[in-house]
Amino acid sequence: MGGSIKVLEVDDKRVTLLLEGYSVAFANAIRRLVLSDVPTMAVDFVYFYDNNTGIHDEIIAHRLGLVVLSSEEALAKYKPPEECRGAHEGDRECYVELILEDEVPEDAETGRYVKAGQLKSSDPDVAPVYPETVILYLAPSQRIHAVAYARLGRGSEHGKWSPATLSVLRYTPVVHYDGGSATPECLRCLEAYPEIRELLERGERGSIEAPLLRRTGGLLYCAEEACRGALEVEYDSSKLVLEVESTGALRPERIVFEAARRLEERARELLEALGGEGEEEGGG
What is the pLDDT of residue 125? Predict the structure, then answer.
């Protein structure tokens, strides 16, 4: 029997999927690859031509590396990380150039913040996702001139290339309830779970699956303490909930798609390696 996937919710930053008929090992592999193997664009190194601010070059370079860059089009336009190791910064199939240049005159009354939106990119498809991100502050008579080079990378190499801020796999909670046994103390305990509390207040009895219920620790506490006999919480391991939150570099559904494709590639590589060994042994 094949598995099924249902989209529970999706927007520009988060996707939540319900997977039925898939093993925990498979779903967890996708979860891990979301963080470690889906490539995005990020600044790899920076050349400084002028910097008389109070912030060292290394700190500014670190901040530039953490600037989230749009990567939707980059996945098809640029070579994968493995092919860009040792490449020269002039290689336009690997690197995007981002220029940061600003100066505050000596006679200025106040300084100003330099933000990510001021980066001038050689590729308009690779630009800061959050232009208001502050990089540094320029006081009067201070200036900055730096050229950064961004390439595709993977989270396994450095966290700045990870496309997700959150990648979680959990079992589906199943809540059994008996409103007739609910006490006032139990209802007070469930204030943080209004939907469950409403079922008990109506005196109803039954069971519901709650795949979008993210924090069940408090519910478990109520079931074991104030709501004994009125509430029981179980977890269905056959229905897995995968939740991915994007940094903004890629759409969340694209991240999951790329992770699944990466898993397929790795499995194919393993099968080819095993097949090759078998042929060699047989030929001997």
Answer: 97
Terminus-to-terminus CA distance in the chain, angstroms? 40
CATH number (domain holding residue 124): 2.170.120.12
What are the CA-CA distances from residue 173 to residues 9, 208, 227, 235 (Å)?
A: 17, 9, 17, 5
Q: What is each CA distance from 177 to 23, 46, 53, 191, in whole angstroms?
A: 28, 59, 63, 15
pLDDT-based confidence at residue 283 (cuts at 50, 70, 90): very low
> What DSSP letter does each residue of 242-269 carry, written as one string?
EEEEE-SSS-HHHHHHHHHHHHHHHHHH
Q: Does 258 reside within a domain?
A: no
Total of domains in the chain: 2
Q: What is the pLDDT of residue 86?
A: 83
**Lookup: tokens for 222:** 């109520």
Write phi, then psi, for 137 (nearest 5 degrees): -115, 135
- Residue where a domain stops, chosen among 117, 132, 158: 158
Which structural domain range is residue 78 located in? 41-158
pLDDT for residue 214 is more than 90: no
pLDDT of residue 70: 98
CATH assignment of the domain containing 181:
3.30.1360.10
